[in-house]
Amino acid sequence: MNTHFVLRIFKKRFASNPRNDSLGFTLIELLLVVGILAVVFGLALPFALNTKFTNELDTATENLITTLREAQSQAIAAEGDTPYGVYFDTAATPPAYMLYKGASWLSKDASFNIGGYGTTELPKSAAMSLNWTATSYEVTFERLTGELFPTGAADKTITLSIPDIGSKEINVTANGLIY
45: exposed, middle or buried (C-beta count within 10 Å: 0-12, 13-18, 19+)? Predict the structure, then answer.
């Protein structure tokens, strides 16, 4: 096809209609684009929120595992010639946990604050459940061995969950394996 022929048709088509000389968009075109963008963002938002909450759950799980391993490491190192543990406050909003030094949370060394540990809160949307019942929700590790204290304690499971997203379990075996 001849290029001059195409240009001549193009010029005739648009030269005959003076409204096409303006360089703008009609209201219908703008509304159509805004509508398409609204649909795309509406479909993407649930995926983005799901990803955010999944990442929060993964991060909270890894942080709790790190805290449990820190308590176990301190107990194995026999720092202060005492066991170390992690206390779980399931009644708090949001649930929280704390590293402590001592044979139990109730008899902990109140002056202990290794590495600036304090209360670690779970994300606001998260829940925590424990598979054991006791007067105190804690996991304590034996000096030198890193096994659960007192000797012969049963395996413990901590479950972190976020509604409509999922849950993660952390297991602490009697012989001190954390996974």
Answer: exposed
